[in-house]
């Protein structure tokens, strides 16, 4: 297993510094929650790591530098992500979605043939994300929570070693949240997980470590208890968060 | 030396024509993202407006000046009608909009054939525009080209002022940048779309008036210019007027220089190659709107 | 580690819904083959049969557009370019074959601008060069343009406009080079087709059978591509290119395959159009014919296998029938087809069938 090491990461949009010199270390097998108020730079940080936006600094996953590579190469190096709004291929079935996710390394020859059986990784992932019954349903007809799980399932069959999840439980019911949290536990056994989340209850239940971002910089880092006790954090963020909760 | 200067002037005047025909598109395609293939037929409508007016008003000079606002209104009205009947239903399907408006352009061309006849028709240029301005013995600038240059400049300035300083302009920019936010802020986005389309299509009518000074008027005149106009906006970059302005003059100059050293047909191919090469360097055009959206 | 072991599934191997959809074109293909090879040659006069050959050439272009546009979302408005490249490659060979060894084609002597055959004409004298070139040349051009624009993520409307501009540029270029390409007149007046006299009705029938067989072959290729994993991937790229990229694929390559295959299909169509119809000229490959290739596809159903073929033949037939007697009415009708079908029935006639079935109990 590999960890994520970010040094002096900077992203700016027309002069606005969305990420402003972030250093971040995520240990192998960790479940790291990234929290912070809106505009803190959480999603932009994930965008930079996955190659969607240009950034300066350095991002290492294991021994490999990620910055400067195109998106699909970073994905092939074992880095996968989900999006705030679940993006699955709505006009393909659940099975087809997973099969495509599993196939980035396929040879041109096998691509040009029909799928004659279900790959083992795909049927295992169907079990893990609990969508076996919906296998032949079009992804567009799934419930919101099921789409989120399908996205996570796609990362599993893609065999990523680093999962970057952008608000995976947004809009989910309480039971779905717990199921997702349990899923994170299973997934992190042999993978490193980074979660962007606004849901404080979810964070308290399932985070192993937490990093608080504010205005493009790291404000605080540590265990859930340490971060909650940090007066700086209470000032900018958790103060409101705990009052709400 | 004078050869270069006169070629440059030719280039700038080709650029001015390109700019005039592309200006309306830079609003409807550039700002709203609507691919209106019938834009060329709005240009045609502007040109036929001059033709019709000259049947009524015999003075060529007055008819051209009167034609400018009328052509603007005629083409603009056609644009609003098109937006209201079809395009409004297709905002989420840009490629389908392209095909649908191509169908509209076929219908409009055939209508022009049925009304005005298939052969090209001519209009009289005003006396003031038939002469030349003699700079040196070798360097002669024709009045109608100068007039078009002035008209293009005026149109750009007017459009910039409207977009920047009027409440309509602010609303247009708001809808372009964030449609949903503009809607919940109380801006009637549907009406803004229609007004934007009116202005963009109206500008096509003005371009049509200008084209009557350069050649005959015919049912296919729109098809002949529409691709060039789109290329200008594509290379200029979505949502930026100044990109279209720079690209129009650059392409005009490039075309005139290549035409001078080879032939018109080779120039067309080389200009296309130049645009593809340019898009390798700047795939989003000369100027880009940076956003955080996934696409 | 990605496991490559695949286990056979015991439960239904493919969903019943899916199997039904796939079975349709299989039956359709068989029926189509019977119509093309058994019914049409018996039922139609020589004249009608050669018209059908012309429509089938247009249908071959439509198969490629259905793949690139219907499945891949690539609205290519410049298929005339590839049709033209294939057509001119074939026409150049036939002109040289008619002229005889060492001779120049008649039109070059007629315009009298050239003393010798241009160097780029020379290789087309050999059928071993000319025949593969009719397909490979369009594929090469599509590969070059496609790898440039797709890699730089030029897509959607931008791609459509660029492909259209390419068609315009090629047509204008050909018109300007009258001495070497025949200009506006194009290349025409062919006597023989690989030694067979084209004036002989029997040989015209032979050309028809070659066209029909080629169309069936292209349909089988398209069918395999659509049903393969690549076909699923192509739909995924159409619907969310960015998402596919995050799964580790380069969508540019996925699109490039569809674009290049479609170009090859258009090239073959152009090559067979020349002996079937007897002419290739710039008016057949510019902006207008290029976009007209698309309307048949839209009418028949862009995302289906047989829809584009049926739509293309129907539109071409309507055009011949109507435009002879009522040219104005045909242009209005064509315009209306674009408007009504694309705006209100984007799935084409194929979706109308589904809609009807859904309504009936």
Automatic annotation (TrEMBL), chain A:
Transmembrane domains' residue ranges: none
Keyword annotations from UniProtKB, A to Z: ATP-binding, Nucleotide-binding, Transport
Chain ranges of the ABC transporter domain: 4-240
Superkingdom in the source lineage: Bacteria
Listed SMART domains: AAA
PROSITE patterns (UniProt xref): ABC_TRANSPORTER_2
Matches recorded under PANTHER family: CONSERVED COMPONENT OF ABC TRANSPORTER FOR NATURAL AMINO ACIDS-RELATED (PTHR45772), HIGH-AFFINITY BRANCHED-CHAIN AMINO ACID TRANSPORT ATP-BINDING PROTEIN (PTHR45772:SF8)
Protein name as annotated: ABC transporter ATP-binding protein
Organism for this UniProt entry: Phytohabitans aurantiacus
UniProtKB/TrEMBL annotation, chain B:
Ranges that cross the membrane: 6-27, 60-82, 146-163, 195-217, 229-251, 263-281
Membrane disposition: Multi-pass membrane protein
Location of this chain's protein in the cell: Cell membrane
Main location as per UniProt: membrane
Family of the protein in this entry: Belongs to the binding-protein-dependent transport system permease family. LivHM subfamily.
Cross-referenced InterPro entries: ABC_transp_permease, ABC_UrtB_bac, BCAA_transport_permease
Protein name: Branched-chain amino acid ABC transporter permease
Keywords (A to Z) from UniProt: Amino-acid transport, Cell membrane, Membrane, Transmembrane, Transmembrane helix, Transport
């Amino acid at each position: 297993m590999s960890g994520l090491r970010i040094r002096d990461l900077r992203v700016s949009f027309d002069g606005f510094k969305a990420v402003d010199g972030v250093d971040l270390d995520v240990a192998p097998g960790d479940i790291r929650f990234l929290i912070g108020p809106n505009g803190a730079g959480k999603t932009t940080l994930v965008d930079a790591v996955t190659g969607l936006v240009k950034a300066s600094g350095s991002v290492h996953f294991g021994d490999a530098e990620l910055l400067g590579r195109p998106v699909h190469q970073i994905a092939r190096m074992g880095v996968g992500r989900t999006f705030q709004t679940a993006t699955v291929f709505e006009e393909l079935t659940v099975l087809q979605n997973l099969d495509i996710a599993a196939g980035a390394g396929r040879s041109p020859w096998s691509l040009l043939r029909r799928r004659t059986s279900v790959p083992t990784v795909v049927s295992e992932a169907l079990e893990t994300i609990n969508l076996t019954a919906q296998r032949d349903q079009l992804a567009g007809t799934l419930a919101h929570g099921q789409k989120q799980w399908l996205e996570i399932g796609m990362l599993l069959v893609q065999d990523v070693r680093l999962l970057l999840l952008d608000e995976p439980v947004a809009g989910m019911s309480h039971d779905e949240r717990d199921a997702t949290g349990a899923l994170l536990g299973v997934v992190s056994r042999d993978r490193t997980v980074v979660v962007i989340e606004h849901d404080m209850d979810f964070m308290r239940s399932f985070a192993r470590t937490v990093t608080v971002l504010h205005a493009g910089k790291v404000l605080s880092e540590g265990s859930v208890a340490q971060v909650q006790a940090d007066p700086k954090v209470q000032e900018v963020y958790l103060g409101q968060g705990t009052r709400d909760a | 030396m004078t050869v270069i200067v006169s070629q440059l002037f030719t280039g700038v005047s080709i650029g001015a024509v390109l700019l005039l025909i592309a200006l309306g598109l830079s609003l409807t395609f550039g700002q709203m993202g609507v691919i209106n293939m019938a834009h060329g037929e709005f240009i045609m409508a502007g040109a036929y407006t001059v033709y019709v007016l000259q049947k009524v008003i015999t003075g060529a000079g007055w008819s051209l000046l009167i034609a400018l606002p009328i052509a603007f209104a005629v083409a603009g009205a056609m644009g609003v009608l098109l937006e209201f009947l079809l395009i409004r239903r297709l905002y989420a399907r840009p490629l389908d909009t392209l095909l649908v408006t191509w169908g509209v352009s076929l219908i409009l061309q055939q209508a022009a054939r049925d009304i005005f006849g298939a052969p090209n028709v001519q209009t009289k240029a005003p006396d003031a525009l038939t002469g030349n301005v003699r700079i040196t013995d070798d360097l002669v600038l024709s009045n109608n080209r100068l007039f078009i240059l002035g008209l293009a400049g005026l149109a750009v300035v007017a459009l910039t002022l409207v977009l920047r300083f009027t409440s309509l302009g602010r609303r247009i920019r708001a809808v372009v940048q964030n449609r949903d936010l503009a809607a919940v802020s109380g801006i009637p986005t549907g009406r803004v779309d229609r007004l934007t389309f009116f202005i963009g299509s109206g500008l096509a009518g003005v371009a049509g008036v200008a084209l009557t000074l350069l050649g005959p008027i015919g049912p296919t005149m729109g098809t002949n210019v529409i691709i060039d106009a789109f290329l200008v906006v594509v290379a200029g970059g979505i949502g930026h007027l100044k990109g279209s302005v720079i690209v129009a003059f650059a392409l005009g100059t490039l075309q005139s220089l290549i035409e001078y050293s080879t032939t018109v047909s080779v120039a067309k191919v080389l200009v296309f190659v130049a645009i593809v090469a340019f898009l390798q360097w700047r795939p989003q055009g000369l100027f880009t709107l940076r956003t955080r959206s996934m696409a | 580690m990605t496991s490559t072991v695949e286990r056979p599934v015991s439960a239904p191997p493919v969903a019943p819904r899916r199997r039904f959809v796939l079975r349709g074109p299989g039956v359709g293909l068989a029926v189509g083959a019977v119509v093309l090879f058994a019914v049409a040659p018996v039922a139609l006069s020589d004249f009608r049969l050669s018209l059908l050959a012309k429509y089938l050439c247009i249908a071959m272009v439509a198969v490629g557009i259905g793949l690139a546009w219907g499945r891949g979302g690539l609205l290519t408005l410049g298929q005339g370019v590839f049709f033209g490249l294939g057509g001119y490659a074939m026409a150049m060979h036939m002109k040289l074959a008619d002229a005889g060894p060492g001779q120049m084609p008649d039109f070059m002597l007629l315009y009298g601008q050239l003393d010798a055959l241009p160097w780029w004409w020379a290789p087309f004298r050999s059928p071993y060069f000319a025949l593969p070139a009719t397909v490979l040349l369009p594929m090469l051009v599509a590969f070059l343009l496609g790898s440039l624009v797709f890699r730089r993520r030029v897509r959607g409307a931008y791609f459509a406009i660029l492909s259209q501009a390419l068609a315009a540029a090629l047509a204008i270029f050909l018109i300007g080079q009258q001495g070497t390409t025949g200009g506006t007149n194009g290349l025409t007046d062919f006597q023989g087709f690989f030694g067979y006299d084209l004036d002989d009705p029997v040989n015209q029938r032979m050309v028809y059978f070659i066209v029909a067989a080629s169309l069936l072959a292209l349909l089988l290729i398209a069918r395999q591509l659509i049903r393969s994993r690549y076909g699923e991937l192509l739909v995924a790229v159409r619907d969310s290119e960015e998402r596919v990229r995050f799964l580790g694929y380069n969508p540019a390559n996925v699109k490039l395959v569809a674009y290049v295959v479609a170009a090859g299909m258009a090239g073959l169509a152009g090559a067979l159009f020349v002996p079937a119809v007897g002419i290739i000229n710039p008016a057949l490959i510019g902006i207008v014919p290029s976009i007209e290739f698309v309307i048949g596809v839209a009418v028949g159903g862009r995302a289906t296998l047989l829809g584009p073929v049926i739509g293309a033949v129907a539109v071409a037939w309507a055009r011949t029938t109507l435009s002879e007697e009522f040219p104005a009415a045909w242009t209005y009708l064509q315009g209306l087809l674009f408007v009504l079908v694309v705006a209100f029935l984007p799935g084409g006639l194929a979706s109308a069938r589904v809609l009807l079935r859904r309504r009936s109990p």
